[in-house]
């Protein structure tokens, strides 16, 4: 009889921050010398994609341990902590958190939350520069060190700081592969992209896109071009606006820290208990099935054999029933996390802020408010330069970032 062929499918799982803690206590690499200002790249970190499937109902998501409101809060918290990590290295120029799909910057970081609990954090990070060159798109994963939640432990702050440090080091590693001329080109493309979006009739043709989607410089403004100087001034105003918005992200971050820390500690204990109960429930169900199977296959020719068979079947059913009862008890832990997440969301509710006389709501409306601000800057520029109103020209743009947003 021909034996069936066994197909082995290779599966590669890239654990950038591996499971376990052999590589724990990763330090963010600091700049050892002062980097010339002309070689410092500004970094924008977009508010993350919370990674919550719109196809699932709120209850379905929560059954899987994903709390939509909490994820929306984490989508702002995580980028701000990454901003702090990058800033602490001295490797970059200005580092700012940006609303999604807004602004032009030298280096743009986008992220999607794959999993976030007190036990494990998984993020997909995509980094690209102003030319459209993708530096990296990697999933980072880290299981927390249990000592991070031990009040007696010293030196642990953010439980997943090693993961943030790893991301920072990876971005720096990509930058270090660039030549000085490439860095200058990124900064110049970033400058021209802003000018082209501000006044496409004048600067729309200074950049062009290759077939691969990368932007190349076709023309450079003269050093004494008064219009590009005016555009640079408008960009400075734009950066000041974003800096103001970042002050509110900072306030949100600080307010969220304490309750978020408590939630993750609770989540860590609950997830461990949940895993133990699910494992035990599964074992009981399997054992019950084996007992039933053994009872069915037992020799029942004798009275003793028949009694043993019935006892095995009954025992199997009781064991399976016990396993299902444990599964129901496990749902209590899920409900406890849901209740805590609901109270947590009330503590970190979106804030209404006032920026330049405009009211912003830092959830859902930040992007539209920034678009209104950009439109206002355009009107200011036209008024100051005497340029006509709308034009049909459109600036070159970089390709979209896949499914991250």
Short description, anyone?
By secondary structure, the chain is an alpha/beta fold. Helices cover 50% and strands 13% of the residues. The chain has a five-stranded mixed sheet with strand order 2-1-3-4-5. Strands 6-7 form a two-stranded antiparallel ribbon. A two-stranded antiparallel sheet has the order 8-9.
- What is the end-to-end distance? 53 Å
What's the SSE pattern?
A: EHHEEEEHHHEEHHEEH
- List the uncertain runs: 1-22, 391-395
Number of DSSP strands?
A: 9
Number of contiguous helices: 8
Global morphology: globular
DSSP strand content = 5-15%
Fraction of residues in helix: 40-55%
Characterize the biggest β-sheet.
5 strands, mixed
Average pLDDT: 75
Oligomeric form of this entry? single chain
* Lateral arrangement of strands in the main beta sheet: 2-1-3-4-5
Radius of gyration: 28 Å
Derived structural class: alpha/beta
Compile the SSE list and pairings:
Layout: E1 43-46, H1 58-63, H2 68-89, E2 95-98, E3 107-116, E4 120-129, E5 134-143, H3 161-176, H4 180-198, H5 200-203, E6 207-209, E7 215-217, H6 226-297, H7 303-347, E8 352-355, E9 358-361, H8 366-385
Parallel strand pairs: 1-2, 1-3
Antiparallel strand pairs: 3-4, 4-5, 6-7, 8-9
Helix pairs in contact: 2-3, 2-6, 4-6, 6-7, 6-8
Your description of this structure?
The structure is a single chain. This protein is α/β, with parallel strands linked by helices. It has helices at residues 58-63, 68-89, 161-176, 180-198, 200-203, 226-297, 303-347, 366-385; strands at residues 43-46, 95-98, 107-116, 120-129, 134-143, 207-209, 215-217, 352-355, 358-361. A hairpin with a 5-residue loop joins strand 6 and strand 7. It is globular and about 70 Å long. Residues 1-22 and 391-395 have low confidence and may be disordered.
């Amino acid at each position: 009889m021909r034996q069936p062929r066994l197909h082995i499918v290779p599966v590669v799982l890239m654990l950038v921050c591996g499971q376990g803690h052999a590589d724990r206590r990763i330090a963010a690499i600091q700049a050892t010398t002062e980097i010339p200002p002309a070689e410092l790249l500004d970094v924008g970190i977009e508010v993350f994609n919370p990674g919550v499937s719109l196809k699932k109902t709120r209850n379905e998501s929560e059954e899987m341990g994903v709390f939509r409101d909490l994820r929306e809060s984490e989508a702002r918290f995580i980028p701000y902590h990454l901003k702090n990590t990058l800033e602490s290295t001295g490797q970059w120029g200005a580092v700012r958190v940006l609303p999604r799909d807004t602004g032009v910057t030298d280096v743009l970081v986008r992220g999607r939350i794959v999993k976030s609990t007190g036990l494990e954090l998984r993020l997909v990070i995509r980094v690209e520069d102003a030319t459209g060159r993708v530096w990296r798109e990697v999933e980072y994963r880290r299981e927390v060190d249990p000592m991070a939640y031990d009040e007696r432990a010293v030196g642990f702050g953010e439980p997943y700081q090693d993961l943030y440090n790893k991301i920072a080091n990876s971005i720096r590693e990509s930058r270090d592969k660039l030549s000085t001329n490439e860095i200058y080109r990124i900064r110049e493309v970033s400058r021209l992209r802003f000018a082209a979006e501000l006044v496409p009739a004048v600067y729309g043709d200074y950049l062009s896109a290759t077939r691969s989607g990368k932007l190349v410089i076709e023309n450079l403004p003269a050093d004494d071009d008064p219009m590009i100087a005016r555009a640079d001034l408008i960009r400075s105003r734009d950066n000041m606006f974003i800096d103001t918005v970042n002050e509110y992200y900072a306030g949100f971050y600080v307010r969220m820290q304490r309750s978020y820390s408590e939630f993750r500690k609770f989540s860590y204990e609950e997830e461990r208990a949940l895993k133990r109960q699910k494992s035990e429930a599964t074992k009981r169900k399997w054992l019950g099935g084996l007992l039933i199977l053994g009872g069915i296959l037992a020799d029942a020719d004798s009275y003793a054999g028949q009694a043993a068979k019935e006892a095995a079947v009954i025992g199997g059913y009781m064991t399976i029933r016990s396993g299902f009862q444990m599964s129901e008890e496990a749902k209590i832990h899920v409900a406890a996390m849901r209740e805590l997440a609901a109270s947590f969301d009330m503590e970190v509710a979106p804030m209404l802020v006032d920026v330049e006389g405009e009211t912003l709501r830092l959830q859902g409306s930040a992007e539209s408010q920034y678009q209104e601000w950009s439109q206002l800057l355009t009107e200011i520029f036209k008024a100051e330069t005497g340029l006509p109103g709308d034009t049909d020209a459109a600036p070159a743009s970089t390709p979209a970032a896949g499914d991250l947003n």
